[in-house]
């Protein structure tokens, strides 16, 4: 791996500026989902174990360069202390004399949380002067926020150029999993791409057809591809203005030796609601007044068969209207099959994206995937083949 890890730097007695993603949902004074906090615990514990002092840098919301009381990171201190099992000191600044004094006053095994980096407009501008001010608080920079790695900000990219740098445990796990999944995968490779619109995942689809052996398309996106093949999709969600683009992607896939899999049977209903009256029909027999809301059993069987033939699976997006029962059937069945194959050692499975994480967790399969990324935009941009500034800075 071309980046350094915590194990390769001497952290003893060093102030370790650690970029984390703790942009968590909060209701009142309570963090309602601690997943992102839980995932940075290994990094914090290892820095402490190596004799370093963790100094946390993070953003929260979009304050647009102004101090906004309800977006202060101070409200996260109790949740962080509970997760770390250590005292967390808070600084109302993230650079300058006051922040430096707080750093100097840190006691052994204390963690310092600096204020929201986006309270200064220079953060998102990657202002080199602000980067220098921030760097003055630390001896080493550790980036543990893959989910923010697609942003070239002071705290995600700038600091890596002015301090000895490394990846934290979460960043290390993310990069290792993604390298195994797409950069150096065991073949055959399958990718599941679902969601509502082709237009939001054009670059993703174009990149994947060059990299994978099977591209399984589901959700509303599949309807656009079906329409491009001249199939009537009734009142289904579809981008009919994108059928030409869908046809070009299918042509490109054929030229690149990638087999695109679309539903051959579907579950249709006349209403977009949970437990709507529905029926299973051939994909070519969708009634004019009906909507395609999920893939049918024949399609599910075909998807599961492909999984058994593959060694690597990448997943982004559900296969149907998973938020409405019973139209989560295809997503659940395919996810459980992937989990079964992963657990048996037959398949390496990597998934990411907001809806994806929710869908896989709802199916009960998430815990058995090789890796599930909590990153949204960064995961998608990585799948699109883009260079992520935060990762490139660590490598360079």
Give the SSE layout:
Blueprint: E1 15-19, E2 26-27, E3 30-31, H1 35-49, E4 53-57, H2 77-84, E5 88-91, H3 97-104, E6 111-114, H4 128-135, E7 140-143, E8 165-167, H5 169-183, E9 189-193, H6 202-211, E10 214-217, H7 219-228, H8 243-256, E11 259-261, E12 265-269, E13 278-282, E14 291-295, H9 297-309, E15 312-316, H10 329-343, E16 348-352, H11 354-363, E17 371-373, H12 377-383, H13 389-395
Parallel strand pairs: 1-4, 1-7, 4-6, 5-6, 7-8, 9-10, 9-15, 10-11, 15-16, 16-17
Antiparallel strand pairs: 2-3, 12-13, 12-14
- The CATH architecture of the largest domain can be given as 3-Layer(aba) Sandwich
Specify the helix fraction band. Answer: 25-40%
Query: What distance separates the N and C termini?
Result: 12 Å
The count of helical stretches stands at: 13
Reading side by side through the largest sheet, how are the strands ordered?
5-6-4-1-7-8
What is the name of the CATH class of the largest domain?
Alpha Beta
Mean pLDDT: 95
Radius of gyration: 23 Å
Annotation, overall tally of beta strands = 17
Beta percentage is 15-25%
CATH fourth-tier homologous superfamily of the largest domain = Phosphoglycerate kinase, N-terminal domain
Features of the shown structure:
single chain; 396 residues; alpha/beta; Rossmann fold; six-stranded parallel β-sheet; 13 helices; 35% helix
Task: Offer a concise description of the structure.
This protein is an alpha/beta fold.
Q: How would you characterize the overall build of this protein?
A:
The structure is a single chain. By secondary structure, the chain is of the alpha/beta class. The protein has 2 domains: 165 residues, Phosphoglycerate kinase, N-terminal domain (Rossmann fold); 199 residues, 3-Layer(aba) Sandwich (Rossmann fold). Helices cover 35% and strands 17% of the residues. The chain has 13 helices and 17 strands. A 6-stranded parallel β-sheet has the order 5-6-4-1-7-8, with helices on both faces. Strands 11-10-9-15-16-17 form a 6-stranded parallel β-sheet, with helices on both faces. Strand 12 and strand 13 form a beta hairpin. Helix 6 packs parallel to helix 8, helix 7 packs across helix 8 and helix 9 packs parallel to helix 10. The longest helix has 15 residues. It is elongated. It starts with 14 loop residues before the first strand and ends with a helix. The mean pLDDT is 95.
């Amino acid at each position: 791996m071309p980046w350094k890890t915590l194990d390769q730097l001497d952290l003893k007695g060093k102030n370790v500026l650690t970029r984390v993603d703790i942009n968590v949902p909060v209701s009142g004074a309570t963090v309602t989902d601690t997943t992102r906090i839980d995932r940075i615990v290994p990094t914090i514990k290892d820095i402490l174990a190596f004799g370093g002092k963790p100094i946390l840098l993070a953003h929260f919301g979009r304050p647009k360069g102004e101090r906004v009381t309800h977006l202060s990171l101070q409200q996260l201190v109790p949740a962080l202390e509970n997760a770390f099992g250590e005292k967390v000191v808070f600084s109302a600044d993230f650079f300058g004399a006051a922040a430096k004094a707080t750093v100097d006053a840190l006691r052994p095994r204390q963690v310092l949380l600096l204020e929201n980096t986006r309270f200064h407009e220079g953060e998102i501008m990657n202002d080199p002067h602000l980067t220098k001010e921030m760097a003055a608080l630390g001896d080493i920079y550790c980036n543990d926020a893959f989910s923010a790695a697609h942003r070239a900000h002071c705290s995600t990219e700038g600091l890596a150029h002015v301090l000895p740098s490394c990846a934290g445990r979460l960043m290390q796990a993310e990069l290792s999993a993604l390298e195994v999944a797409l950069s150096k995968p065991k073949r055959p490779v399958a990718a599941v791409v679902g969601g509502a619109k082709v237009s939001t995942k054009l670059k993703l689809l174009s990149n994947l057809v060059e990299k994978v052996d099977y591209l399984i398309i589901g959700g509303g996106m599949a309807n656009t591809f079906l329409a491009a093949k001249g199939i009537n999709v009734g009142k289904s969600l579809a981008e009919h203005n994108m059928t030409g683009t869908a046809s070009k992607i299918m042509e490109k896939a054929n030229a690149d030796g990638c087999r695109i899999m679309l539903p051959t049977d579907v579950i249709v209903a006349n209403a977009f609601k949970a437990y709507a009256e529905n029926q299973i029909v051939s994909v070519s027999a969708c009634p004019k007044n009906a909507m395609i809301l999920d893939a049918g059993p024949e399609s599910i069987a075909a998807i599961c068969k492909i999984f058994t033939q593959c060694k690597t699976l990448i997943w982004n997006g559900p296969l149907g209207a998973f938020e409405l029962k019973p139209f989560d059937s295809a997503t659940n069945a395919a996810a459980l099959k992937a989990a079964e194959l992963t657990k048996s050692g037959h398949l390496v499975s990597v998934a990411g994206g907001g809806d994806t994480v929710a869908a896989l967790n709802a199916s009960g399969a998430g815990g058995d995937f090789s890796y599930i990324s909590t990153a949204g935009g960064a995961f998608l941009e990585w799948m699109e083949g883009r260079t992520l500034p935060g990762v490139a800075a660590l490598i360079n």
